Amino acid sequence: MPVEGGTSSGSASASSRHPKQKRKAHSLSIRRTNSTEDRPGGLLRGEMLDGQDSKLPLTLRNNLLDLFGQIEREFENLYIENIELRREIESLNDRLTGDGQTVDGADPSKGVLKAKASHSTSQLSQKLKTTYKASTSKRSHMLQSKIGGIAGPCGFSAASWELWGGDSWIVSSFKATAGSRALCQLQKEYMGHRDGIWDLGITKTQPVVLGTASADHSALLWSIETGKCVLRYAGHAGSVNSIKFHPTEQMALTASGDQTAHIWRYMVQLPAPQPQPDVTAPPDDDQDSSDREEGEVDAEGPCEVPTVRVATATLKSHQGVVIAADWLVGGKQVVTASWDRAANLYEVETSELVHSLTGHDQELTHCCTHPTQRLVVTSSRDTTFRLWDFRDPSIHSVNVFQGHTDTVTSAVFTAGDNVVSGSDDRTVKVWDLKNMRSPIATIRTDSAVNRISVSASSRIIALPHDNRQVRLFDMSGVRLARLPRSNRMGHRRMVCCTAWNEENQSCNLFTCGFDRQAIGWNINIPALLQEK
Questions:
Q1: Residues 178-271+307-531, CATH architecture
Q2: Residue 468 and residue 165 in contact, taking contact as beta carbons nearer than 8 Å
Q3: What is the dihedral of CA 387, 393, 395, 396, to 10 degrees?
Q4: Residue spans with biased composition (Basic residues) (predicted)?
Q5: Nearest to 126 by CA among 118, 136, 116
């Protein structure tokens, strides 16, 4: 599976090194009269400055102008790619509109085209995810606001690219019913990030707060009851791709596109709760809300809050983007997952690298630890996930789970002996740790699945999708509900992550997405299970 509204040449080069993200050749060319290639070899840009008083040596000035020329050519290439990708999307939408691909029960003969369209959308979505999660440049965010539509190697700003919301032709296979809306209600919106939110988590110590990790290079802590930001972590130089909290202490673990993971301490003071407004909306769930501008989501970011800028410990052993990190049981060790195809095990007290877990054939996308045992599961783009066993200090065994046909975006432990995995192949599979040859349940959906979560007591799986939907299933694969979404509520871009907090009476499920917001939901779990 995780980086910011715009990307610099540094993030562009990171994207180009990715084995599946090679930039294709372009047939379109734009002739520019002020380009150095259009001038005779003897003419330099420096001649444009003749008559101007310059104290720079001629050699230095020519070197600077040559560098400016390279920058201009890079932006020219981005502009060309921007035009081509827009034309491809318009062409694809025209084809789908002409063929009437809108709702369930369509002509079966159109299934091949629909599959191709979904695959194309998945590829574009994956390309943007890759580019954003590798972002490490602070200049890129400034470029986004100045340049507008040109925002990164893919040529799209998050505000203008409709595919982040699945576009108008991606529709849900299930219709929300009045009953599901009564069982699943939006309670609070947490808005303040300046770019998409990749991950979220809930603290395990008092006071209980919500944490979010964003492509805007920051992690924010929120009051669950008031929706106000109470602390900001700004120690990373790249996209913050995940956030996890220590089981017993006020410490957070974040992973970043700057190739590091940080451990940092926090102290928060919660504001007094205030009466919350009614955020419910009429049942117009299928209305498209993509015309609502991203800038409406508090574009100026959170108000002045305490900011932590220095980490307690910095873990630096990876040679690529650190995509996820988690605490092992007890909180004395942490594990990190990276695009360098390795997962690293560190001692928290010394920041020492204990083990490097290798074996995956492609980049890692996620890692998760067991709540009570020394077990780690890592997910990868190689379509597998691996179970690493550290219960016996003398023997570190590994088991490979094969069952998906595309990138495994996440795999998480349940309270029992199960692992649940989600994939870009639009399936979620439930596995038994005692019998790993085949899944015991398979959930098939209509959109790629991102970072899933399973509630501890009721064992309900929350699925975040690329097409803006969030669905709830039980461990047997039975669909329980779909969270309500309309033009005035719910996510407006892809949903990146879900997290349960069953101890909270008001908000027991949280979701976040690339529309720059996190949402707290109230799920009536007893009634939901009774309706099943």
A1: 7 Propeller (2.130)
A2: yes
A3: 30
A4: 17-26
A5: 118
